[in-house]
Amino acid sequence: MITLxxxxxxxxxxxxxxxxxxxxxxxxxxxxxxxxxxxITSMMEREKVAHTYLGNGIAIPHGLSKDRDLIVQTGISxxxxxxxxxxxxxxxxxxxxxxxxxxxxxxxxxxxxxxVLDDEEAVHRLSKTNNPDDIIACLTNRTTNGKAPESxxxxxxxxVDVAIQGKTGLHARPATVMVNLAxxxxxxxxxxxxxxxxNAKSLVxxxxxxxxxxxxxxxxxxxTDEDEALERLxxxxxxxxxxxxxxxxxxxxxxxxxxxxxxxxxxxxxxxxAIGSVFQLKRGKIVFEATAKDPAAEETRLRQxxxxxxxxxxxxxxxxxxxxxxxxxxIFLAHQEFLDDPEMVEEAVAPLKDKRxxxxxxxxxxEQRAHxxxxxxxxxxxxxxxxxxxxxxxxxxxxxDKVEDEMTLPDYPVIxxxxxxxxxxxxxxxxxxxxxxxxxYGGPTSHSAIIARSLDIPAIVGAGPAILNLADGTPCILDxxxxxxxxxPSQADLETATTAQKDLQAIREAxxxxxxxxxxxxxxxRVEIVANIGAATEAEQAVNAGAEGVGLLRTEFLFxxxxxxxxxxxxxxxxxxxxxxLNGLPLIVRTLDIGGDxxxxxxxxxxxxxxxxxxxxxxxxxxxxDLFKPQLRAIFRxxxxxxxxxxxxxxxxxxxxxxAKKIAEEVRLEVGAEPVDIGMMIEVPSAVLxxxxxxxxxxxxxxxxxxxxxxxxxxxxxxxxxxxQADGLHPAVLRMIHQTVQAASAAGxxxxxxxxxxxxxxxxxxxxxxxVTELSISIPSVAAVKAKLRKLSLSQTQNLAKRALKCRNAQxxxxxx
Length: 817
Prior knowledge:
It is a single chain. By secondary structure, the protein is an alpha/beta fold. The protein contains 30 helices and 28 strands. The strands form 5 sheets. The chain has an 8-stranded mixed β-sheet. Helix 18 runs parallel beside helix 19. The relative contact order is 0.08.
C-alpha cells in the first residue's frame, strides 16, 4: 500500500495553467524521491494523447508507460488549487493528483478517489481544507467521506469470467475503452470484482472497483443483445482494452531518449538528432520605389526578371533532383508554371503606363492572386497561396533597389529557427551548416518537411510561436524523431544526446550494410520494400539502396519542363532503360497523372475553378487519347524487356477503370504484347467505399496516402493553417486503408502503399499491421524502414494497427509509438 504523507501534499496552490499545475504535482513527486525530473516531461506528453480529467474538479496526470524507467518508487502527490485551473475547455480542476506508478500499486488510491467524484460536497471540502490529513484520509480510507462501500448487486443469468490483462489493472484508459464499448449495446451490462458490482457504462463506477492487474472480473449482461455484448467485451478484455502492451511485446520504433530538461513539443518532420546553437531566421525588407519615369524600361526589367526567375527555378529543380530525386524536385516545376502565367505578367505590366515601378506592379499582381487563392473555400487551392508568394518574392528580389530578405545563415553550423520555411528556403539549405531546423508552423507532410528528409536534415514543425522567443546562440538539442526541442539543456542531457548521435550514426551504417536483406519480420512475415522514382536514372539508384523493385514510377517527368509531349520512342527508351537497370525486379508504371497542381502549358488545358476536383489523372488521359495511347504503347513494348505492371491514377468510378482497361487492352493487342498486371491507385474516398467492386476489376491496389489524406480530410498539406493537421496517420485515413485492405484480401488481391507515411517507420509498422504487403518509399528511406520492420513481429504490428484504428486523432496514433 502506498503511504501518502503531508510532504506530498501542497495546499492553497496557485497555477497559471494546466502545465504549471502538472509541473507542481511532478515536482512534489521528484522531491519525495518517487521519480526522476524527466518524468515530468512524460506527464506533459500524456496530456496530448489521453484525458486525465477524472471529473468533478479532479485530474490525475501521469506519464507514458514507455518512461516508467524514470520512476524510482510508486507514489502520488496532491496539489490543491482552491481557485481552480482550466484543464481542458470547460473543465475546472481543484485537486491535481499526480501519479508515478511502476505497477498497479496506485489502483487502490484511484479507487478511493472515485468514491468522492459524485459527492460535490466532499470535493468542495477537500479543495478548501487547510488540513492535509483530510486529503490523506480520503485517499487511504473509503469510508472517510461518510459512505460505506456499495453493496454488491445480484448477478445476471448471462455472464462470463475473464482476467484483466497486463500489470496496471483496470485504470482510467482501459476502463474508458470498456465503457465506450458497453455503450454500443442496449443491454444492461455490469462488472463484478470481488463483492462489488459496477455499471459497465459508467467510468466512475468501474474505477470504484479498483481492479488490479491480473484480477478476474465477471462480465454480466441482460437484454436483447446480451450474447453479442458479452462476446465483444470478453474479446476486448483479452486483447488488453487498448492499454499499452507488456514490455516484452511492446512496439518501440526508433530511439527513446529521456532528457531532464523541459521540452518545447512540436511535430516530428525529419528524423535525426542535432546539438547546437539556434539562429533565428528574420526576414528583412525588399526595398523599392513605387514609381518610375520610363514605362518601357520598367516593362523590360519586369520581363527580364520573370525570365531570370524561371532560370533560377530550373537550376533549383536540377539541383534538388540530383540530391533528392525527381519527386522531391517536382514542386519547383510547379513554381515555374506560376511564372509562365501570361495573365499575371500582363496584370503587372498594365500599371506601368501610369508611371508605376515594375517592382510595385509585380508585387500587386502576385499578392492579389495569392489573396484570391486564400479566400477560396477549397483548402487544397487555398494552400497554393504560399507557393505563389514564394515565387513572387523571388522575382521581386530581382526588381528591388535593396534586398534585406535573402536567407543568410552564419558560416558555422546552427539549428535554424523560423516561422515557416518555403520549399525554396529548404532546398537552399546547406546540410553542413544547418544542423537541423524547427518551425513555428507547418505540418509533417509539407513540401519543406519532405525536402528536409531527403537532405537528411533533422526537423521539427508546428512547434508554436514560443520558439520565436529563443535568443540567437541559445544552446539546444533538437530531436527530429520525437518532435521535441530542448533549449538550454543540462550537461547530463548534452552527454546523453552526444552518445545518442554516435549510436545513431552506427545504426545507420549498419542499416546500409544490411539494405539488401529482405524485410523479414521476427516471425517470418515478409513486407516487400520498393521505391518511388521519377526518372530513368533513379531505377539503378533504387536497386543500389536495397529496393526490391519500383512500386511507383511517376511518368510525369517525361512530360514536364518541355515545350511538347514526349514521343512514343522517347518513352519506350526511358522505360526500357529502367527495366534493364532493375534486371528482372518489378516496375510499376503509373500512367500520366497531370492536373491539379501540375500544369503543362503545351497541353493548353482550360482554366478550372477547382482543378483538384477537375480534369486530372485518368480523366485527362480519357480526354487526350493522343497522349494516353502512345504512352500505353511504349509501356507494353517495354514490358517485353522486363517485369512491368500498369497502374492508373485518380480512379473514382467503376466506369473509369473499365474504360481504362478497355483502352489498354486495345493497345496491347495492337502492339502484340503479353498481358500485364493492371492495378489502380486508391486516392479518393469513392475508391475506398467501392473497393469490393474495384477488387474484381484489377490485380492490385496501390494506396496514394498523400492524396487520400488531402481528399479525406479536405486539407492541403501545403496550406499554412491546415498543414499541421493534414497527417496521413489520422485515424480517418487509416480506417480508409483498413477498409481497402479488407476488400482486396477478400478478393485475393494484394495492396501496396506509395504515399509518404509508408516511408515513416511508424507508418510502415501500422501499414504492415493493417495487412499492406508492399511499401513503396523514397530511395533514402529504404534501408531504415527495412531495418525497423525486421525488429518487429506481425502480431506486434497487428496489435499496434488495431489500437491506431481506435484513436481519435493523429496525435494519439503517433503517441502509441
